[in-house]
Please model this.
Amino acid sequence: MPQLEIRDLEVYYKVPFGTIKTLFGIQLDVEKGDSIGIVGESGSGKSTLGLSIVRLLPPNAIARGHIFFNGTDLLALPASKMKDYRGTGIFMIMQDPFNSLNPVKKVREQLIEALRIKYLRRNERVPEESLYDEVLKKLKDVKLPDPETIMDRYPHQLSGGQIQRIVIAMGLLLEPSILIADEPTSALDVSVQAQIIALIKELQDKYKMSLLFITHDLSVAYAVSEKLLILYGGRILEFGNTEDVMNSPAHPYTEGLLKSFPRGNYRDGKLYTLQGAPPLFTDLPNGCVFNPRCPYAFDRCYQEEPGLYDYMGRKVRCFLRHE
Amino acid sequence: MKAVDLLKKAIGIRKDVDSFSKRVPENVSIWYYVIHDPQALIGLIIIALFIVWSIVEGSLQIIGGYLKDPALGWILLPHNPLAPPNAALSLKPPSLSYLFGTNLEGEDILSRILYAAPKDATAAFLVVGLAILFGGLLGTVAGYFGGWLDEALMRITDAFLAIPGLILAIALSILIGPGYYSVLIALTIVWWPIYARLFRGQTLTIKYRGYVEVSRLFGESSLKIIFKHVFPNAIDPVVAYAALDFGTVILTYSTLAFLGIGVQPPYPEWGAMASNGLSFFPGVWWYTLFPSLTILLVVISFILLGDRLQDIISGRLTY
Amino acid sequence: MNENGSDVLIRTEGLTKLFLASKYGLLDRLARAKPLFVRAVDNVSISIKKGETVVLVGESGSGKTTLGRLLVTLEKPTSGEIYYEGIPLSKNISAVREKVQIVYQNPLESLDPRLNINSIVEEPLLNRKITKEERLRRVKEALESVGLDYSYVYFRKPKDLSGGQRQRVALARAIISNPRFIVLDEPTSALDASIQSQVLNLLIDLKNRFNYTYLVITHNIMVAEYIADQIYVMYAGKIVETGRVDQIMKKPLHPYTQLLFKSVPSLRNKRLEPMVGEPPSLINPPPGCRFHPRCPYAFDRCRVEEPALVEVEPGHFAACHLYTKK
Model:
């Protein structure tokens, strides 16, 4: 049984002039130890997807459907029960790391608190001193310079990169079954980015965590993930093995995206471009969401929305791949 | 300012609006949200009534003053708010003809409340407007140029902000002398440092934005850049703060009148009326209650509207 | 490096920019405390040929943005000189300002949200003696050059446009005053992946039509390779390597460049090899080569002697003791 099963997930936002739907019939199985790169442009619904799994959507959002975590439907749980699953069950590294830490507590207290919760839930008794050592070791793992001093600081005294690493360390300390990371490296420098990616991968292998890595950058997703989920206009357009998708993209959007990446020098020729811009949720096209930009679109694409079809071991939302 | 915070707490201003503004479509105006929010709408309606009435009544009073016909000032009111003392009408409870009752001098309290409105409205808008103008310009210039100018201005505002506003206002009004305009001057002197700080803070972030730097490359003068790019872009968050602040000015202005500073009798003033009536409380409850309620109503309305504006504007800025 | 030929548009000599590391106020001055400086750009000499695209590659904090700002006169050099067509900049700063432009990473911050597109694009022309009709004609022309429809955009505000359209507006404002030299600071990194190639094509197209000289600042190696003629690699305020794009991409010489290429995610690079350590402090940079604490090949000489740029193959320079002769 998959660790996480998402069935018919739809998310709506209530706004003064009505409701806006931002996720459409998401189906996803996450097996233990999977690493899935969730790739989408702005307004694809990728952050909404992550937030709805940990049920941290803003109060005006409504999520419908089912998210089964080891058989329990998270969406049906009362809010008070949900917190038992956060942290050690599912941990999310947010895009804006500052909100993940308590501003009035020292870094050390917060990390030790996270560890206490972990051992409490496992019914293990661990002496306090070893907690400190474990925290220190993990901070060294995330390449935080001078961890002893930084542990005695408050979050506002630290830089974005330092905070991001502390939150990542917290996630790793909790050893969650599922780690969701929403653009965890976008606040970090290029050379640090590779360090963090390597670290997350290494720990994922070690503890058999499942990883959902949300990013706008296909090249980062390529480096991180074994499976690739392409989101566009709130829908899954393609889902499959990362190597397969990169080598032979099945959806015209994935194909166009990959073709438009610069390779070589401008003297070798113009870059391929996808015309137009990603759609807005307030103004989605009829039929297939990708039809205004699709070079292969035909009549049917404008009239009905394609389903998510099985195609060569992948899932693809395109009529061309449906026999 | 403490009183405002308490009031906000008491009426349970919503705090969950940030998330709401995440998916704001970009071509809807601010007023759309105000009208669709019951709290803000109530605030807006009351403020609109207050302003419209103040304009009408205020113009009548001014025209009456020019024509040497003060009676024109109360042509729309049920009774003469400045009527000579009349023992027969003294301290009458609310009735059909005197809706809010009468005071010790036998004047109609409703008429006096309505007659005093224009002065309160003028005080609020003049004080905040002048504070934005002087404080805003000083703060923007200081923030833009930096250096010793900035340093000096910030130390001056520190000195002002170190003294509680009400006490400073009382001291200044006594120093300048009694009267309506001296209170306005005193309040403006108390109010500008906050706006200087607000604008300086905004300017410090705006001056490194691309459009300001690029303008410098085009050879635009600093003064032009300040007026074209910096000041207009700094003003958005200030507007929301100012909407809240109108209520605070009215509250402070009324407090001063309550203490006997400002508009001199026999001209009516809400705070002074509440103060005079207090000695008859609770027996003659209407004497102090209705002026106090009026102050409360107007101040709350500004808070309801201002708070909503703040949510919308800050939400938009982070969009 | 200092070919003084007429095809060189911009040349810098020993360009250095120091920033105060912390506020140096009245009290510090009275206490005669020594001010601490950040050496953002340290003794940099580069030359940019007319019509060429030069790309500055490096991590944040390497000084690449400061160097770009120095070249468009947004910062004043602490020491060193910039020559624009052979004339020192300090002698004719106002003439140079008319010929240089800068485009920023995030168009939402570089376009005034209160102005409409017409006012934004015409701004560079306001201080010149140009008639209203002429101005309008040039605004239309500039917007057309960047692929925007004047009648669609002129009355709109930046927030009404998409990310790609906004960056096109920023480009239109940059080219309307007919500059010779444009600094592009991370021009595509705030854009969606599917929009990036549109803007890159547009940049090449504009350069071919109007013969601009670009300085592109980026950390994206794929973008750098695509748009560059010449690449400069910066590390901790210094140029550590420079050469033609094919030389650098095929055979990076400096250990930093080699490690950088291996650690940056790209579509060719499934297995990343992260670089160890952190960039050095610029207040108190390490002695000798600034990269030696992170360098796998560092030897004794690297810790004491700062390497100079040496020509390893024609046109390809590196500042590394592996290539300096004893």
